[in-house]
Amino acid sequence: MTLYEQLADEIEAAVRRGVFAAGERIPSVRQASQQHGVSIKTVLHAYGLLESRGVVETRPQSGYFVRDAAVRARTAPGRATQTQVVAAEVDVSRLVLSTLRSIRSEDAMPLGSPYPDPSLFPWRRINQYANAIARRHASWNLIDDLPPGNPELIRQIARRYAENGIAIDPDEIIITVGATEAINLSLQAVAKPGDTVAVESPTYYAMLHAIERLGMRAIEVPTHPAHGIDIDVLAQIVGKQKIAACMVMPNFQNPLGFRMPDERKQQLVDLLAAHDIPAIENDVYQELYFGDTRPSTLKSFDTRGLVLHCASFSKSLTASYRIGWAMPGRYRAQVEKLKFLNTLTTPSVPQIAVADYLRQDGYDRHLRQVRKFYRQQARLMIAMVQRFFPAGTRTSSPQGGYVLWVELPPRVDSMRLYQAALARSITIGPGYMFSTRNDFSHFIRLNYSYPWNAQTEHALKTLGELAASMV
Is DNA-binding included in the keywords of this UniProt record (predicted)? Predict the structure, then answer.
């Protein structure tokens, strides 16, 4: 087989696996030459062969585009049949802690990790800023670290919202230790022990942790994998009982990955405002969208200060520095006071280092690369799940972020699968972690942020075989 035939076969295989979708441009001739270490003439021969096979087509002055994707992932909504909606005590922290500990193992395939691949982050550059800052300042005045946080970082955060068409008052922003602290402080500001809090179902377990830590009760609301929380069911709930707050992830929800339509965001804000119920909005994946524009937020539709917006740089820039923020609306004074009482300050060096990076480096360029990578990874992961997993398996259709929600045949118990996979050094997120009930016992969450390689493909194939053996 000639070199150009090998290259053509490799690219065609990538198309079949879903790496390149129908209508998507494949690497330019020059890019392919550099990536594969072959001459431009070899690439032209390979692309000509692909064109003759009907895999790609040329567009004048634009390049080569996929004519027809061989693998069209058959995706369908992945959610459990909802049972009676009742408030429940929360205790999922033991399972989550056990799962996270297993992910920490160096030889484990981190398909169950809730964290993005750190190699995608410009952490070396940010560390350079931090080291330079530490050298310039031999000591720190604790007063400078007090809430709301570093003024320059607050300004940079407000600027990013403004650049995306979202008007934000910088005075509302409070810097926190990651989004987790922002969520906890926000919940503590609007509810008290024994109160009932409405959450999505399935929901990200950090939401359940916050409710559990504060001695509250969770009431789970059915959540559509494309449209978000069921507003009609939520309306019935708030009409019958007292709800202290509603906690949601309207953008690229973990684990479902949906982007809640704007009209439904407006409906949700209006419903909660009519009952004077605060909404705690977890928007940590806001920058990781697959479309052309950044999504709107619940905060965008809030006119009464009832939305407590929480976000961070942990999913898009650096996880090690744990820099997050809250925009708590009318509850700003309470959240700032609670921040001071809970952790006093957020360390200054990480705040200034992130602010310097946002001001001087190419954050948008970095994000474009990450979004493109995640979008391709999502398609590839879906295609591989459809290929290797047993009949009846369905997946979510992520619109952003880096996690995939997988519904397995009902006879497959996700905890048994988790344990069997762990014995083979593969981690997954069992569905039990995302609910206070057992509605998602045959669901799992997978992480597709790590680069695809032979080990990843082997792990997916092994998982599929294990799941098939349980059917």
Answer: yes
